[in-house]
Write a structure and sequence with these properties.
It contains one helix and five strands; from the N terminus they run βββββα. It is α+β, with helices and mostly antiparallel strands. It is elongated, with a radius of gyration of 13 Å.
């Protein structure tokens, strides 16, 4: 299963539960050594994925959105 939702990205919390987040609301990501995603709301989410994995999920998400838009324009 892909790690991205239809319009958001899916990440794994340390307790193995999943959370789906809006990648447009990510302010920054740090590894301390756990990966901590800080949202623009100030909320912090600790996840198992690395920074590189999260970046790739966001890129996939953006490509899907742009692909869906370009397909509708045609």
């Amino acid at each position: 299963m892909s790690k991205r939702g239809m319009y958001m990205i899916k990440v794994t919390r340390l307790n193995d539960s999943y959370i789906v987040i809006n990648s447009d609301l990510i302010e920054f990501i740090e590894e301390t050594p756990d990966t901590v995603i800080t949202m623009t709301t100030g909320r912090k989410i600790v996840v198992k994925e690395t920074i590189e994995e999260i970046i790739n999920y966001v890129i996939e998400y953006k490509q899907k959105i742009l692909g869906d838009i370009s397909n509708k324009v045609r």
